[in-house]
Design a protein that fits this description.
- There is one protein chain.
- The protein is globular, with a radius of gyration of 21 Å.
- The chain is built from 16 helices and 3 strands.
- A hairpin with a 2-residue loop joins strand 2 and strand 3.
- The chain has a domain of 195 residues: Citrate Synthase, domain 1 (Orthogonal Bundle).
- Strands 1-2-3 form a 3-stranded antiparallel beta sheet.
- It is mainly α.
- The structure holds coenzyme A.
């Protein structure tokens, strides 16, 4: 039987992560997500996803070194980015720059972890380079002493970032490293299943991530929060949107039918690290009102905040520009995409589902 949007269809077997949508749990390679964000760094959790176990100190040191050594953009890539029209959004820029990667490396079949490290290392630099060039500011080269997340914030501003902001962003990035068979990961695996190279598979994923129903949701959340802040009446704004048949961005999830654990974890981090903040107060109020109204107007659909909702509020609180939200999600999800591409490559069958023809057939007279 046809399942529109492949709802409920299991497309692959995986060792990488488990989403328990009924109980609101997310597990990376056997580890509860909450335990990982509490005790481990971005690099340690990336290692876990790529290699299947947490690193010992030498393994962690080696991964950090490789990420640092791969952060710089080649000159040709900078030139390509500079030639792109200023109206092109950052996701389009990342898609183009990553697609152009490969001049100095071999990206043939099969994909390797060194290639994944390279793509993970350059993505924040691509984002920071483009952002500062468009703002007519000098590009800030990566700082070797800094770890991945701290260096990303440093390249954006040129200042050593506040440790609470680094921790908040690192929590967000760990929470969004991986999430099962979401649309972009599926796209990556479909491309990899043709025995195409890692760069091509990741480029497919970036294009898929860009859409507003997936990684592009934050801009919708900002719009919602801004509108409510402007009107000053959350219930009125939300009722109007729902009456028009609009979806509330930052709410609902294909798999979670209870609270999204990532959203809950971000809310807790937000309360702990950022403390009193106007965006947090607004977000908490909007969440309460929206969940109540969704239950009233869409009963039984179990609609709660998803990861994008509190991610947006956190990013606002750490002064990250809204145009950076989806690109930052992309920078972290690079790890999950590449882990899935390796898994696909190890046990590959090309994806080739059927389509059901519902058109007419003209018979010859
Ligand atoms: C994430 C999402 C695409 C999941 O979609 P899905 O599993 O296909 O669920 P559906 O779109 O079929 O929605 C099921 C029902 O809940 C409603 N619904 C789902 N999300 C909703 C939302 N955010 N606001 C209002 N209603 C929503 C749908 O209108 C539908 O109602 P119906 O039964 O009356 O037709 C969807 O919830 C959505 O578009 N959310 C907003 C975008 C977003 O935040 N994306 C980020 C995801 S991490």
């Amino acid at each position: 039987m046809l399942q529109k949007g492949l709802k409920g269809v299991e497309a692959v077997e995986t060792f990488i992560s488990h989403i328990d949508g009924e109980n609101g749990r997310l597990i990376y390679r056997g580890h509860e997500i909450g335990a990982l964000t509490e005790s481990y760094s971005f690099e340690e959790v990336a290692y876990l996803l790529w290699f299947g176990h947490l690193p010992d100190p030498d393994q962690l040191h080696s991964l950090k070194e490789q990420l640092k050594q791969n952060r710089n953009l080649p000159i040709y890539m900078k030139k390509i980015i500079d030639l792109l029209p200023p109206e092109l959004d950052l996701m389009g820029v990342i898609r183009t720059a990553i697609s152009a990667e490969g001049g100095y490396s071999e990206y043939g079949w099969k994909p390797t972890i060194s290639q994944a490290i390279r793509l993970t290392a350059i993505t924040p630099t691509i984002i920071a380079y483009r952002k500062r060039r468009l703002e007519k500011k000098e590009f800030i080269s990566p700082l070797y002493d800094l770890d991945h997340v701290e260096n990303y914030l440093y390249m954006l501003t040129g200042e050593l970032p506040n440790p609470a902001h680094v921790k908040a962003l690192e929590t967000y990035m760990i929470l969004t490293l991986e999430h099962g068979m979401n649309a972009s990961t599926f796209a990556a695996r479909v491309t990899a299943s043709t025995e195409s190279d890692l760069v091509s598979a990741v480029t497919s994923a970036i294009g898929t991530m860009k859409g507003p129903l997936h990684g592009g949701a934050p801009s919708g959340v900002i719009e919602l929060l801004n509108r409510i802040a402007f009107v000053g009446d959350a219930e009125k704004v939300i009722r109007e949107k729902l009456a028009k048949g609009e979806k509330l961005m930052g709410f609902g999830h294909r798999v979670y039918k209870t609270h999204d654990p990532r959203s809950m974890s971000l809310k807790a981090t937000f309360l702990e690290l950022v403390g009193q903040d106007q965006w947090l107060d607004l977000a908490v109020k909007v969440e309460e009102t929206a969940v109540k109204l969704l239950e009233e107007l869409k009963p039984g659909r179990s609609l709660y905040t998803n990861v994008e909702f509190y991610a947006t509020a956190i990013m606002k609180a750490i002064n990250m520009d809204s145009e950076l939200f989806t690109p930052t999600f992309t920078a972290s999800r690079m790890v999950g995409w590449t882990a899935h591409i390796f898994e696909q490559a190890e046990n590959n069958t090309i994806f080739r589902p059927q389509s059901k023809y519902i058109g007419t057939t003209h018979t010859r007279k």
